[in-house]
Amino acid sequence: MTIRAEVLKDRCISSGRCVGDEPSAFRFDADELVELLDGVTTMSEQRLIRIARDCPGEAIVLYDDNNDVIELH
């Protein structure tokens, strides 16, 4: 299975947890909201799932090969 990630900026509360955990994959944009970097494509699926699950704003959404949302909680 291949996982695709998306950040829902309207849910991002800028906690920085994902940026701190994986700065090669996440960073803050000019509005201090998280955006994805190319590094997100090289992360293990387990690590990406953990980071998405730990997002306090539930702003990181993951999709499977069929483009269905992967339920994390």
TrEMBL record:
This is Unannotated protein. It comes from freshwater metagenome.
